[in-house]
Structure formats: structure tokens, C-alpha cells
Amino acid sequence: MPEHQNSDIAFRRLFETNMGIKPGERVLVFSDTIRPDETVSASDRDRRVRLNAAARAVAEFAGRIYGCCSFVEFPATPASGAEPPEELWEATFGKTIMAGLKSEGLLGKLLAKAASPEEIGRARKIVLDQQGDVARIIIALSNNSSSHTRYRALACAAGCRFASLPHFDPEMFHTSMTVDWSALAARTAGLVAAVNRAEWIRVTTPNGTGMMICKQGRQAGGDDGLLTAPGSFGNLPAGEAYFAPLEGKSHGTMVIEWGPTHKLDEPVILTVENGVVVQIAGNDPHRARLEAKFAEHANCRNIAELGIGTNDKASRPDNVLEAEKILGTIHIALGDNSGFGGAVSAPFHEDYVFYQPTLTAIMADGSERVIITDGTLNLD
User: Fold this and answer.
1) Which of 23, 227, 350, 355 has its CA 20 to 30 A from that of 36?
2) What backbone torsions phi and psi does residue 289 show, to the nearest 5 degrees?
3) For residue 116, with 0-12 CB atoms within 10 Å meaning exposed, 13-18 middle and 19 or more buried, which class applies?
4) Per-residue exposure over 265-282, b if at least 16 CB sit within 10 Å of its own CB, e if not
């Protein structure tokens, strides 16, 4: 089958199965470009060029098949979790909403992630008063994630269905995106139910990671790739159960062996106390990168998320978007969790994947249930 026909099939699945597109809906696709000041490996540069080309192809397909699609690209943000530029906000929300945010003095604070809860509430009202102006479907094919941003949260509040594909490799359209979505949804729901019975989660892995993650008062959710209800948001490829740990409680040791797109030269070891990273050890350059992020904003130290992979077609450890979905892995994120039940805002959110974990749910009465043993789910 010719390559363009393969792509058309994959793109049609994206819009019709994952997004549930309806006639006349406004679609927005966006991507980012490599900034001149970025240091990027040859392999990652190749992937990012292909990602940008794929984003353009997705937008062209949507315009050709469904009739209403716009495309925006911009220089990459400083990190995942940083707000995208004003031009993307305007393409998403329209001139009336943007004028309202500016006249109320809110846009600058939103872009800087400095808005108070009261100001976020005012921004939400401005958006909801004109929610018909907001794009109905957004396909985020930027390298850096916009998942944990005010931009994404406000779009979803207006009913937008939002698919986030940070670090995506176009090859995934033909691998992890071909999963049986119904089976994945059932598996993810079962895992969410098991996790939600717990107050604490204990995670251990063969590489020396050992964490106690506090779930008290927090609800786990599922990312199953079926983003068809108004306001839906998730990653593609999908496949995880996740929650925002209660701040100030989690503790232990994280032994990081993989960065977002490559294996580290040697592990970086994080010591966690009272819900934040208090010490970093190791000589890999990734240590210096994390220390710089922590210096920029103290909230970047926060233990933001525990996730558990549920996608049996996911296999790549060298790409965090797919790696965190691999069936039986777990991932722990640092930084922002304000968009999915947490209380910490930061211009940073980064996931780290751990392999062959044993995950134990600890209930309020002290009883325990082993949900994963050495990377194998135990849900039966």
C-alpha cells in the first residue's frame, strides 16, 4: 500500500476513532520548531523535523476530508509545561476572548503561570461566555508538551477535545496507535478502580528505585485514547492510569536511567522527602539540566504524578510519550500537577519511566494488594 494511503488510514483513525469528529467542527493542529539556541542530537533533530512534517500532513488531511482545519507553528517553548505563545492562544480562542483576557489584565499572568485562583476563575468565565469561538478539536503535535498549561485547561473547559502528542514519532501512527482501543479502555478502567482503593502506593524496581507515593484524598483517572466527550483530554498514543499524589507526603529514591528521548550515560539518583526532590546524585549531564530547572522554580521539585502504563502495543523506551504507556511500566513526574487534581503550578512537567516495577496498593486499614509484580499486571 502506498505510504500516503497508510497515512490517510492512520489519520482517519485519529479523527474518527480517537477524537469522534462531527461534521462542521473546527479543528486546530499545531507544532513547534527547533529554536536556534537549542542543543539537539542528530537523531532527535531528525525526529522533530519529521514530527513537524507529520503535523502539517495531519492538518492538510483534516482540511481535505473534514473541511475546517487551521495550522499553527511556533519556536519550541523552554520546557514541557511552559505556556505556548500568544499566537496559539488567539488561533484557539478567537479575537473576542483574547480581547477580554487582555482588557482584564489576565493574559500576561496566564502566560507566565502567575495567575491566582481567582484570576483563573475570571479567565474561565471569559472563555465560557464565548465558548462557541473555541476550536472543537485540537491536535497538539509539538515536541514540548502543552498538557499541563492554563492554555490547555481553558480550552477543555470550553468543551474542546484535546489530544496531546509531545515527543511524538510519526512511526507511532503504525505501532502503538494501532492498539485495540476498546480492550485498552477496559484494562485501564480496571487498573484505575484498583488504584482508587488505596491511600498509599509503594513502588520498587530492580534498579534501586523505592518510593512511597501518597494518594490520600486524590482520585486516579484513566487515559484511554477515546477523546470523544466534550472537554476530553489525553495523550496519544494513550494507555495509562494516573493520579496527582498528595503534596508534601511522598518519599523515597528515584533511580533515573532514561531521559525523555535517550538512555542516560549513567543513572541520576533523586532523593525525595516530604513530596519534593531534596538531593540529586550522579554525573550524567541530565543532572545539571534538572538542577537548572530546580533553580528556576522551586515547584519543579514537586512529585507531580504517578502513572501506570496499559498499552500492549507500546514498546519504545527511548521516547517518553510511548515509554510511559508500555504495559506494566510506571512513571513518576516532577513539576506541575495543577491540571489533573494537584495543587502545584510550575512551568515544567517531566515524566520518568521505570521498568519491571512491583507496585503495591496500601489501603486505609493497612491491608495490601500487589497490583504489579515485576512488570506484570495482576488484575484478575
Assistant:
1) 350
2) -65, -45
3) exposed
4) eebbbbebeebbbeebeb
Nearest to 25 by CA among 127, 139, 126: 139
Which set of grid coordinates corresponds to residue 187?
A: 484494562
Q: Mean pLDDT, to the nearest integer, of 162-167? A: 94
* Full domain range(s) for residue 322: 178-377
Is 168 in the same domain as 183? no
Q: Are residues 254 and 213 in the same domain?
A: yes
* 3-class state of residue 72 by DSSP: strand
- Cis peptide bond upstream of 84, omega within 30: no
Q: Strand order of the sheet with strand 210-214?
A: 276-281, 263-273, 251-258, 210-214, 200-204, 358-362, 368-373, 376-377
Distance of alpha carbon 29 from alpha carbon 92, whole angstroms = 10
**Single-letter code of the amino acid located at 70:** S
Residues 290-304: pLDDT tens digits?
999 999 999 999 999
> Which residues have a Cβ under 8 Å from the Cβ of 103 and sit 6 or more positions away?
none
5 pLDDT band, cuts 50/70/90, is low
* Spatial CA neighbour of 19 closest among 119, 135, 100: 135
- Distance between CA atoms of residues 50 and 18, nearest Å: 22
C-alpha distances out from residue 251 to 130, 214, 313, 336, Å: 44, 9, 32, 18
Summarize pLDDT for 224-278 with one digit per residue, the tens: 999 999 999 999 999 999 999 999 999 999 999 999 988 999 999 999 999 999 9
Give the CA distances from residue 26 to residues 69, 73, 97, 114, 153, in Å, rounded to whole numbers and listed in that order.
6, 17, 16, 30, 18
CA distance 9 to 15: 10
Residue 56, H or E segment:
helix 42-66
Q: How many domains does the chain have?
A: 2
Q: How far is the C-alpha of 375 from the C-alpha of 253, rounded, in Å?
A: 19
User: Do 230 and 372 share a domain, yes or no?
Assistant: yes
Best CA proximity match to 240, nearest among 110, 353, 131, 154: 353
The pLDDT assigned to 2 comes to 40
- Cut 0.90: pTM above it: no
Distance CA 24, CA 28 (A): 13
